Amino acid sequence: MVGSGSAFTLAGYLEELTAQEFKKFKLAVAEGGPPGSPRARIPRGRVEKADPADLAGLLVTYHGAGGAWRVALRAWQEMGLRRLWELARKEAPPPDAVEAPSGDTSQSGNKASARTGEPGHAEKYRAQVRKKFQVLEERNARLGEWVDLSQHYTRLLLVRGHASPWRREQELLASGGLHGLLREEHRRPIELQTLFDADAEEAGSPPTTVVLQGVAGIGKTTLARKVLLDWAAGTLYPGRFDYVFYVNCRTVEVVAPLSVAELLSGWLEDTGPGSGPAPVPALLARPERLLFILDGFDELLWGPQAQEAGPRVPGEQRQQVDVHLRSLLGKRLLPEASLLITTRPTALEKLQPLLERPWLAEVLGFRASERRAYFDKYFPAPGQADRAWAAVQANKVLFTMCFVPLVCWVLCTGLRQQMERGEAPAQSARTTTAVYVAFLSSLVRPDRHGPPRIPAAGLRGLCSLAATGQRERRLWFRERDLARHGLDAATVSTFLQMDQFQHEAECRATYSFFHSTFQEFFAALFLVMERPRWPFRRPGWGLLLKGPSGLQADLPLTIRFLFGLSSRERADALETMVGEPVPRGSQRVLLRWIREQAAQGPGRAKTLELLYCLFETQEPEFVRRAMGCFREVKVRVRTRMDGLVATFCLRASRSTLAVELDGLGSGAAGLGFQEPGLADQETGTYSLKDICQDLSSGLWVQRSLSELGLGEDALGDSGMRWLCEDLQRPRCPLQSLRLLNCWLTSDFAESLSCALNVSHTLTSLDLSYNPLEDQGAALLFRALEHPRCRLQKLCLKKCHLTEKSCENLGPVLGVSRTLQWLDLGFNVLGDRGVGLLCGGLRQATCQLQTLRLGNCGLTCQCCLDLASVLSLGARLLCLFLRNNALGDSGVQQLCQGLRAPRCRLRELSLANCRLTHACCASISSVLSASNSIESLFLSGNDLEDVGIQELARGLRHPNCKVQELKVQMCGLTRLGCETLALVLSSCPSLRQLDLSNNCVGEEGTKLLGRGLLQPGCRLQSLKLFWAALSEADKAELAAVARAKPGLEISYLSDNKELWLPSTSRIKMARSALGRGALEPRPVDWGPLRRWTRPASTARLWRSLTHRSRPLSRGGGRTCGRPGFFHSLTFAEVFSADFTSSFQ
To answer: What element of type H or E holds 542?
Structure first.
């Protein structure tokens, strides 16, 4: 059997090739055999679909062992793989050692015949085995449909050793790529070729009994058939076994009385029908050359006489088949023969006492790389496998469960049927629930024409077990748990996995579902079948709706399954499967729950989870009613599946919505999708452009979209031009459009300019973090001059603008009739650019009311221009100049305009402008003017106690109208608190005060408390975050909050924001919620966590709290694509995203 051994060695060399080299090698070997060989050429189709092991077998089959090596060596030499050619040439068999190829069994048959004494029977037997096991009939096959096992088989992962409880738990909870890594990590992978070889790490002889355990649907039967087929082809166990018997334990008639000779004859006829009379005496004379494959030991029905091991039975004596099987397993019958047994883990306890020194391996299903290989073999047409695989990758849950071959088959079958109907896989209705129901049906009723193998009572017990595990946060179950829920052996072996973990001096059998997602699925099925009136509020049921690890999202998979099982189609499928009615009407309960969730204003992550729940139903009418509960939809779309879910739900809506979709670019790039618009139908790509098209076909016509936000996606100029065409439609209802970091350049500006001139509804436009540059901005500003332009709000933060843009924008400000709000922050405009803007602001026709110029590189040189604008009575009401180096001199110049009688400014932000106490006297004079401002933000400046004392003079003046004062991080101590305590009682207009990041201390807290309790104090909100408060200080503030009606005090307690509501609010809350107290609300760390890592956050915070260090020099991340944008500093995040209080 040299040829077969050569095939195994040759396969090892082929696995060393890269994907590109292996492709070239296939082209070379498909041309024909070695020179002068009369053998047939391998069909090109079989070569293209073969993996390294299959291709090695094909080469040996068609060209013989020596010819296969000559073909390979010639191909490697032509490809220039000199090193591989030299190594392989040393292992190539010599010409005189090469036997006939495995396809020509004359020589091997003659050798086997010589041993068995029946000339020609061995080759006939192998031929009949190949004929019977070459084809594989799928579960849903119609008459005449079958697949070639050699071409369809995908290699499975086999490992040795037992996993620890901790490792198994991690595997059960993991998902996506992490799940595949954990399954393969710290395991000993093995190959089929080495199953009966001695273990190099363990001293001892080669095993004669090998047990392959694996859960239902993991591919054990297919693996056993592949072993038999490869042996018959001569590529597996060459020269070791003359005969291999395949015994299907499910079909064995255990009570039939037979002799050993009759039993072997029957098994030979079943395995290789039509091969002729079996040479049983010769086989019994050489038992070491026999292999018995017992497939499905867990399904073997033992007779009453075979329960106890008896003495060795003579071969000629008739006994029941199960007695012979027990003797065969215990090595009392044919002890030298080899056994390969496949079983589910739940039968290991019954199998273990029957065997003598078994060798155990576990079948784990597909490796991560082999999952894609399965799709390639299932879809023969070009491009179909790519589209199907992309659709599965987009669904994290289904991608995780693809390690189970049966799940892969269910997915591929459904996707193939959709392709045959002309549907795109990326837009398939094959939801997660649908796949799990189909998988369940395949296990419960494997024969679609036969009765269910699992009774309805067993299924109910399984669902009850899962629900108990969810409520008690358990993944593992003991045998007493199974008995408590009335589970029979068939149900347990089909759906549960058994592990034996060592506990002190004994081994304990524990049971678990295949994966935690299956436990959540059966828990949801329990809710549907039990039909609780309101499961979300029943005592103890809240934990059932949470993941077993406690680390799941706000809405675990159980709720998603609950929505999917509520659909009519899923209910019909369940009824067909179990043969009993399934309760209906749960959608009313789910709709009420959706309404409650929407009323709470869920965040982006939870909103997306809610949309996923609605998507599982695939019922547009139900989704329409559910979407009517939302007023705005803000989600982060990171994958193509997220986009598909969002558009499905949004298109079903008939209500007016504000929609924000962020994160598309990062998700698409992470999956390696190609650019939008390039053969999307061919590759299954689903990009932001596709989402916009779906929205256009639905929401535009329904006039239900009022606000649209798209962020972090490579929309590109082509996509933007398409979007602009929709903006020009007469029926387009869009009022607000936000496109952040969408890679938009100046090339798109002309299309957008035309849209602004035509749109009758668009009033707000945000294009921040796009490289528009001055050229693109000029085209936008030209649209503002058009009389039909309705734009009122324009945001162009960090768009790479310079003073050139200010030169173009200045005249436009005096012409535009609608523009009232303008943000040019994070652009290097400089003092000259602001001077050019002021030229337009001075125009009497200028309508601008809010101007934001944060982080624009300004100094004191621009303050005179701004002061002149304010003194002329411009309509400007809000001016934001934070994070600019204005200095004391600049603010003193600015105050000249603020004191002017015609100044209308009401809100001024000078945060982090490098100010000291020297400018506070000027600011105080502004506060005492008759047209005093109402909101003043001075955070991040070195004002210290002296500066606060100067400000207090203006705050205590009767003309002062300040309602909000922020002096965070200004170096205040007890003296500053003493001054502010006097201000609280003498400034009746003051409503909000922020003293965060100041060393208030115990004395300062007491002084503030006394001021707050004064009758003249009207303060409603006091913030003391990061103020180094002791427990006594917190108790003091709590007492003040209780005693002062209408006052709210906020500070940090153990890294959480503590909110002390006023007495009146507590009374209102008690009456509304019917409970005794309010729980502290945690601070929302989302924006900070989104931009920085925890370690860098601490370092940045230390730098921020150092008063001598300018805030704008903080570290940060790069926004957009690498090498494109300037660094987004922590100051930008802190001032723009982290909290609105730092202004």
So the answer is: none
Are 863 and 913 in contact, with CB atoms under 8 Å apart?
no
| Secondary structure letter of residue 199 according to DSSP | P
Both tokens of 1129, joined, read 């500093």
Vertex 1099: Cα angle to 1098 and 1100 (nearest 5): 90
Q: What is the pLDDT of residue 139?
A: 58
Q: Look up residue 646 and give its two tokens.
A: 């969002």
Which residue reads 């009374």 in tokens?
Answer: 1067
The domain covering 858-963 belongs, at the CATH homologous superfamily level, to: Ribonuclease Inhibitor (3.80.10.10)
Gyration radius of the chain's alpha carbons: 38
| Interacting residues of 75 by C-beta distance below 8 A, sequence separation 6+ | 25, 28, 29
* Nearest C-alpha neighbor of 54 from the set 238, 244, 226, 196: 226
Q: Which amino acid is at 70?
A: R
The H or E element that residue 502 is part of is strand 496-503
Kindly write down the DSSP assignment for every residue of 695-714, as one continuous string.
HIIIIIHHT-EEEEEEESS-
Residue found by looking up tokens 């001024």 in the block: 908
- C-alpha torsion sign, points 545, 549, 550, 555: negative
Q: How far apart are the C-alpha atoms of 915 and 922, rounded to whole Å?
A: 12
Spatial contact of 498 and 481, defined as CB atoms under 8 Å apart: no
| 643, 611 Cβ separation under 8 angstroms | no
Residue 1001 zone, left/alpha/beta (φ > 0; ψ -120 to 50; rest): left
Please report the pLDDT score of residue 173 as a whole number.
55
Q: Which residues of the chain have pLDDT under 70?
A: 1-6, 31-41, 93-119, 138-146, 161-187, 200-204, 254-255, 302-316, 421-430, 447-450, 489-490, 499-508, 531-555, 638-640, 656, 662-704, 712-719, 721, 1053-1143
Residue of 193, 184, 228, 214 lying closest to 15 (CA atoms): 193
DSSP 942: B
In Å, how far from its chain's centre is CA 740?
A: 23
Q: How far apart are alpha carbons 866 and 849 in whole angstroms?
A: 14
Q: Are 970 and 923 in contact (CB under 8 A)?
A: no
Hey, do 858-963 and 972-1053 end up sharing a CATH topology, with the first three levels equal? Answer: yes
Q: Which of 744, 796, 746, 797 is nearest to 776 (CA)?
A: 746
Domain-by-domain residue ranges, the chain?
2-91, 124-198+206-268+285-299+318-365, 372-452+462-575, 858-963, 972-1053
Please name every residue paired with 1116 in a beta bridge, in sequence order, or none if there are none. Answer: 1129
625-641 as b/e, with b when 16 or more CB fall inside 10 Å? Answer: bbbbbbeebbbbbbbbb
DSSP class of residue 477 equals B
Distance CA 96, CA 955 (A): 107
| Beta strand pairing call for 1021-1023 and 1048-1053 | parallel
Q: 2-91 in CATH: which number?
A: 1.10.533.10
Superfamily in which the 124-198+206-268+285-299+318-365 domain is placed by CATH: P-loop containing nucleotide triphosphate hydrolases (3.40.50.300)
Nearest-CA neighbor of 601 among 631, 637, 644, 565? 631
Per-residue DSSP letter, 430: -
Ramachandran sector of residue 1084 (left: φ over 0; alpha: ψ -120 to 50; beta: rest): beta
pLDDT of residue 951: 96
Cα-based angle 53, 56, 59 (whole degrees, multiple of 5): 150
- Interatomic CA distance for residues 333 and 89, integer angstroms: 45
What is the C-alpha to C-alpha distance for residues 984 and 993, in angstroms, rounded to an integer?
10
d(CA 329, CA 653): 64
Cβ–Cβ < 8 Å for 411, 430: yes
CATH topology classification for 972-1053 = 3.80.10
1045: tokens are 């009606």
Kindly state the tokens that stand for 966. Answer: 């922020």
**Measured distance CA(858)–CA(893) in Å, rounded:** 14
> What letter represents residue 287's amino acid?
P
